[in-house]
């Protein structure tokens, strides 16, 4: 029998736990509290779940358990209940949050209650414990997180930890995005959770053994069925030496595939590739950066971040949530690029576009000789930043001077180099996680300069006559501008800049230092000759189409609504039967996600 189960809004309880190792300053603690409050509010407005029994009580581990992640119902401990109020192996939580724990002899005799039920947590579906330790904080790590326990009926994560590292990032928006990213790992985007996913009827996607557990691999780690995570070979992966065979891991669950087919305009897409670089914690628990680039759940966070339909679809495919997609951000990267884009290397894609005389976006092939002083700046793909083509000589950045792996060497020539370049085996994109594919990356070495949303005042040295702030996006110059400052005339380095913009009736208007430039078509060059505060700016800008710059303004750019708006058919809500599965608790392997 199928029963429609009432879904309730996900209710998150937050606990900021201060312990001896706590390393956050008072100021940083305030920021973390505010940010986690925002994350909680955001998730509660997007996700609904099946009601869990109230109050929520966490399982206490038995001695000898590997308490990462605890699954299943309470079982008596056949040795001792752990005298340690820790979850996720070493993160302590208030013992009030635990349920009773019974200790028995191995033969189930002489059972005694070693700990009684704590009061537990009212009105809570997910308990999130927030810490500020410095342990496991690598250079530049802002935060990390993990799920700690799954509930016993459908295996949904009910407890997790997030640890904020004492990093010096104080941009609240950035820390919010990172915190949300981390909590997505806790909610379901994690390789140690895929084996526990449920289908739309609430049945396990991966077959279970008599104890209710998924199968394990040689290391004893649970593995998900091929209907969830699948290894496939890309047989036509083009390199500069010719085609090769590249094995990749794809997530093949239904909503993710639906979103992928629509986004890439590829009806034969069978799955969306997961990251294969970065080792445990990154590989397998993020989208492949070559494919989704600035999507929020890729393994390397960029300045522009989008929690897109891909990541929301993944949460829905876990079977644990219904998702309100209206909060999804638009992902410009890869949109409409076709099956040739998803099923091959960026080298192959670039070659085929070149042969057809078409633009090679989202990639680029302009060699940047000096990363800290890059030339030929352009806009990144969603125009949130001034960017440089990050095709560099990686010899300069890899201490070991080991060349790029052959499968990621794509180029014998590019826009400004040919096969006589001295270190071709090192020529490639700067980002390993993006399979060394080169693309326009924000000029981070000069940040916040170049990051359009940042409200930096540009009084001195404003050689591109830019305006920064939430209403600004990047526009390319038609060449390099000439600046006359008093008696001094020079050529600007910036060949793109951040300007306020608006769209109206599909037309684009760019504002430069208070003057509007009305575009009549995409690609049109409009001359700029303005003198402001004694500085004369002479050059041109290249008009973007409304889809290129107003992709999220459906009202004023109907073309964008057509590309990114709601599809004609909307899927119906799924039916979730009530099934009670019983199985023995076993812990999964340790994994911390970054
Ligand atoms: C738990 O351990 C602590 C210190 O290791 C000890 O003082 C305490 O008595 C123990 N409690 C129980 C119930 O075993
Ligand atoms: C992928 O190719 C490798 C080597 O050619 C082969 O050993 C492997 O079985 C293939 N895997 C799949 C899933 O086809
Ligand atoms: C999603 O919600 C958050 C706040 O809850 C908001 O800041 C953000 O703009 C929303 N994004 C979209 C694309 O609606
Ligand atoms: C790269 O650019 C920086 C900043 O302009 C400059 O200081 C440095 O000398 C340049 N390096 C090389 C190798 O040209
Ligand atoms: C790069 O900039 C130089 C100097 O401004 C210019 O001559 C050249 O055409 C540009 N190359 C490309 C590929 O844009
Ligand atoms: C390759 O580039 C170098 C330097 O830019 C140039 O001198 C040479 O003629 C080029 N060779 C070919 C075969 O195009
Ligand atoms: C113009 O010159 C002044 C004084 O030297 C300097 O402060 C300012 O940054 C210059 N502006 C530009 C756009 O070059
Ligand atoms: C540019 O567009 C704005 C808004 O539509 C309009 O007010 C203005 O007159 C236009 N300017 C020019 C030069 O056409
Ligand atoms: C996300 O998916 C929903 C539901 O299919 C759709 O209405 C919406 O237009 C999509 N958003 C984007 C940005 O693609
Ligand atoms: Zn991550």
TrEMBL record:
Active site: 182
GO biological process, alphabetically ordered: cell adhesion; proteolysis
Enzyme kind, highest EC tier: hydrolase
Origin: domain of life: Eukaryota
Binding of Zn(2+), residues: 181, 185, 286
Region ranges (Disordered): 200-221
GO CC list: cytoplasm; membrane
Gene Ontology molecular function, alphabetical: metal ion binding; metalloendopeptidase activity
Residue spans of biased composition, Basic and acidic residues class: 200-210
Co-factor(s): Zn(2+)
InterPro entries: Peptidase_M8
EC number: 3.4.24.-
SUPFAM superfamilies: Metalloproteases ('zincins'), catalytic domain
Cofactor binding note from Swiss-Prot or TrEMBL: Binds 1 zinc ion per subunit.
Secretion signal span: 1-22
Alphabetical list of Pfam families matching this protein: Peptidase_M8
Assigned keywords, A-Z: Hydrolase, Metal-binding, Metalloprotease, Protease, Signal, Zinc
Family under the similarity heading: Belongs to the peptidase M8 family.
The protein's name in its UniProt record: Leishmanolysin-like peptidase
Lineage: Eukaryota, Metazoa, Porifera, Demospongiae, Heteroscleromorpha
């Amino acid at each position: 029998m199928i029963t429609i189960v009432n879904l309730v809004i996900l209710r998150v309880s937050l606990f900021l736990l201060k312990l001896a190792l706590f390393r956050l300053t008072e100021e940083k603690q305030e920021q973390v509290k505010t940010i986690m409050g925002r994350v909680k509010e955001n998730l509660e407005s997007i996700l609904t779940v099946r009601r869990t029994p109230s109050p929520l009580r966490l399982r206490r581990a038995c001695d000898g358990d590997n308490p990462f992640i605890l699954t299943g119902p309470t079982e008596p401990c056949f040795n001792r209940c752990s005298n340690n109020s820790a979850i996720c192996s070493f993160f302590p939580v208030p013992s009030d949050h635990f349920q009773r724990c019974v200790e028995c002899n191995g033969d189930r005799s002489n059972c005694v209650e070693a700990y009684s039920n704590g009061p537990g947590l009212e009105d809570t579906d997910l308990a999130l414990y927030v810490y500020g330790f410095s342990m496991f904080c690598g250079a530049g790590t802002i935060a990390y997180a993990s799920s700690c326990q799954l509930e016993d009926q459908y295996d949904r994560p009910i407890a997790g930890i997030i640890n904020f590292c004492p990093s010096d990032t104080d941009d609240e928006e950035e820390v919010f995005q990172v915190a949300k990213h981390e909590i997505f790992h806790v909610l379901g985007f994690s390789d140690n959770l895929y084996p526990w996913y449920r289908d739309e009827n609430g049945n396990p996607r991966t077959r279970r053994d008599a104890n209710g557990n998924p199968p394990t691999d040689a290391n004893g780690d649970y593995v998900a069925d091929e209907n969830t995570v699948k290894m496939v070979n890309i047989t036509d992966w083009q390199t500069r030496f010719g085609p090769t065979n590249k094995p990749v891991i794809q997530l093949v669950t239904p909503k993710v595939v639906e979103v992928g087919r629509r986004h890439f305009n590829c009806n034969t897409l069978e799955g969306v590739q997961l990251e294969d670089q970065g080792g445990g914690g990154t590989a397998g628990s993020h989208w492949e950066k070559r494919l989704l680039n600035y999507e929020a759940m890729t393994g390397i966070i960029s300045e522009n971040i989008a929690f897109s339909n891909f990541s929301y679809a993944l949460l829905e495919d876990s079977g644990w949530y219904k998702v309100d997609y209206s909060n999804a951000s638009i992902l410009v990267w890869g949109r409409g690029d076709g099956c040739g884009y998803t099923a091959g290397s960026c080298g192959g894609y670039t070659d085929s576009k070149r042969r057809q005389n078409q633009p090679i976006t989202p990639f680029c092939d302009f060699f940047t000789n000096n990363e800290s002083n890059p030339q030929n700046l352009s806009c990144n793909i969603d125009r949130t930043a001034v960017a440089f083509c990050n095709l560099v000589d990686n010899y300069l950045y890899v201490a070991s001077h080991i060349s790029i792996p052959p499968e990621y060497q794509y180029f014998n020539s590019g826009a400004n180099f040919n096969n006589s370049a001295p270190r071709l085996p090192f020529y490639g994109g700067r980002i390993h996680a993006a399979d060394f594919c080169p693309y326009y990356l924000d000029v981070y070495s000069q940040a916040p300069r170049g990051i359009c949303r940042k409200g930096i005042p540009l009084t001195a040295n404003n050689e591109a006559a830019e305006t920064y702030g939430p209403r600004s996006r990047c526009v390319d110059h038609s060449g390099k501008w000439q600046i006359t400052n008093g008696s001094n005339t020079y050529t600007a380095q910036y060949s793109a800049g951040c300007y306020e913009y608006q769209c109206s009736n599909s037309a684009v208007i760019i504002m430069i230092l208070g003057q509007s430039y009305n575009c009549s078509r995409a690609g049109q060059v409009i001359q700029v000759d303005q003198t402001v505060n004694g500085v004369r700016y002479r050059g041109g800008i290249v008009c973007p189409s409304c889809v290129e710059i107003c992709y999220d303004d459906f009202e004023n750019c109907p073309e964008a609504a057509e590309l990114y708006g709601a599809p004609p058919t909307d899927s119906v809500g799924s039916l979730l039967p009530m099934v009670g599965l019983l199985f023995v608790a076993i812990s999964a392997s340790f994994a911390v996600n970054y």
